[in-house]
Design a protein that fits this description.
Glycerol-3-phosphate (1)-acyltransferase; 47% helix; 260 residues; alpha/beta; globular; 7-stranded mixed β-sheet
């Protein structure tokens, strides 16, 4: 029953936020003014879920520089995690076009000027590059989940090339970002939302000066290696979960002792 309450609370926050974004986004050509609604939504979602967030490596970045963030993908909670964890940046996602049809969420995504790509149409890639380029020209950073889907077991999947082509064409630095712990909170294919800790490791930017379209494979391998380097192992995940369990037991014992 507790999970249903969380889902209901998420709906109560998401629906008005999405409607406000959709309405005001009609008059916001780059989605900059409505971005604050997304930030509030992400904060509220993390509070409802009970997720604590630790972010490392922000000192590597300049708030005045737009980037292309390449991020591993474990959970639907990754989106509010990034919105809340990278507060100095305006973020837009490259996501599959089917998400635009999701009620409320998809409408807000369209109004906030996120970038939808039709994976079944290869010619759509040129339009995506153009849209992303216009956003970058406005100082907006792009988020790419290069795996193309959520990992079901936390392991890093192979990277698709589209986001790397964008980086090479626009000459924007790539920032490898590793999210740990989000899959435990909301796993792929599961609707049960659990409390827990999420860690975001922000890597050093990778300059595109030495890369071109013919070296995308090497670039993808470099970014894949950096993201994988910060990824928790199975034993680390189990240890983190065990520590959270011990903390919960200690908290309950403290409450019981005060009650006696």
């Amino acid at each position: 029953m507790f999970y249903f309450f969380k889902l209901a609370a998420i709906g109560i926050v998401t629906v008005p936020a999405a409607l406000a974004t959709t309405l005001f986004g009609l008059f916001d050509p780059y989605g900059k003014r409505v971005y604050g609604i997304s930030r509030f939504w992400s904060w509220a979602i993390l509070r409802i879920v009970g997720a604590s967030l630790k972010v490392h490596g922000l000192n590597h970045l300049s708030p005045k520089q737009p980037y292309i963030f390449m991020v591993n993908h474990q959970s639907n909670i990754d989106i509010p995690v990034l919105l809340h964890g990278l507060p100095a940046f305006q973020l837009r996602w490259i996501a599959k076009k089917e998400l635009l049809w999701v009620p409320f969420f998809g409408w807000a995504m369209w109004a906030a000027k996120h970038i939808a790509v039709d994976r079944s149409d290869r010619s759509d890639a040129l339009a995506v590059l153009a849209k992303a380029g216009r956003q970058i020209d406005q100082g907006i950073s792009i988020v790419v989940f290069p795996e193309g889907t959520r990992s079901s077991d936390g392991r890093l999947l192979p990277f698709k090339r589209g986001g790397f082509l964008l980086a090479v064409k626009t000459k924007m630095p790539i920032v490898p970002v590793t999210i740990n712990g989000s899959g435990r909170i909301l796993a792929k294919g599961d609707w049960r939302i659990r409390r827990g800790e999420i860690e975001v490791a922000v890597g050093e930017p990778i300059s595109m000066e030495n890369y071109r379209p013919g070296t995308i494979r090497q670039l993808a391998a470099e970014v894949h290696g950096r993201v994988a380097q910060q990824l928790w192992s199975t034993s680390q995940t189990a240890e983190a979960q065990g520590k959270r369990g011990e903390s919960a037991v200690a908290a309950r014992a403290s409450i019981e002792n005060r009650t006696l």
